[in-house]
Amino acid sequence: MLWTVPPLGLALALILLAAAFLRPGSPWVWGVVAFVVGHSVIGHKELRFLFPLLYAIPVLIAFSASALDRILSVRTWRRGIVWPLGVQNLLLLAVLATPAIHRGKEFDWHYFHTLWEASDHAGGAPVYVLHTLEDPYQVRELHTNIYRHPSIDSIPPGGG
User: Fold this and answer.
1) 116 domain-assigned
2) Any bridge partners for residue 143, and if so which?
3) Which neighbouring-strand residues pair with 130?
4) Greatest mean pLDDT among 24-28, 41-45, 102-106
5) What is the pTM of this model?
6) Distance CA 125, CA 118 (A)
7) Residues 73, 131: one domain?
8) Do 13 and 76 have their domain in common?
9) Residue 115, number of CB atoms within 10 A of its CB
10) What's the total number of domains in the chain?
11) N or C: at which end does the chain have fewer Cβ atoms within 10 angstroms?
């Protein structure tokens, strides 16, 4: 829920909970519950461990949608849930589709792409990068591997 845009994550969590309560005998619900409980026992948690749940989400959403069709009128819940989430997704798509929003900022994809192209044109010779940080691929606390060419080597600050 925390990794999605707030209204979408909240709606998704409510839809999944509704499916669990409306279809408690379904093998899909039991599979998701067992998966979540099993992963809750594990001390080290990462978001990537939850990706197998993506296969069950459309099924659980369909369970909730069919129950909402029986309980409410179709127009009411679609107008109240589907349209706002659809508009939100279109707005987020428009933001992501804008070209080069990070150009000139601390994190510049074009810089990494240029490093890759320079390494390709070097013909296998090492390419040394002078950078203010220890590693040109260190962005804040994250270590990126985007366009990381094996022949790129960085020279740490101070020339060491």
Assistant:
1) yes
2) 138
3) 155
4) 24-28
5) 0.48
6) 10
7) no
8) yes
9) 19
10) 2
11) C
Instruction: Say whether 130 sits in a helix, a strand or coil.
Output: strand
Domain boundary among 77, 97, 117: 97
- 92 and 137 within one domain: no
DSSP single-letter state for residue 103:
T
Helix, strand, coil shares of the chain, percent, nearest 5, are: 60, 10, 35
> Domain span at residue 146?
109-155
Statement to judge: residues 65 and 129 lie in one domain: no
DSSP 79: I
Long-range contacts of the stretch 8-11 (C-beta < 8 A, 24+): 8/85, 8/88, 8/89, 11/81, 11/85
142-143 vs 138-139, strand pairing mode? antiparallel
Q: Quick count: other Cβ atoms within 10 Å of Cβ 81? A: 18
The answer to whether residues 20 and 29 touch, using CB atoms and an 8 Å cutoff, is yes
Whether the Cβ atoms of residue 141 and residue 117 lie closer than 8 Å to each other: no
Residues 34 and 76 in one domain: yes
75-126: per-residue pLDDT in tens?
676 677 777 878 888 888 887 777 655 555 555 667 777 777 888 888 878 8
Specify the residue for token string 């270590």: 143
Per the CB < 8 A criterion, the answer to whether 102 and 62 are in contact is no
Q: Are 155 and 130 in contact (CB under 8 A)?
A: yes
Residue among 135, 130, 127 nearest 151 (CA): 127
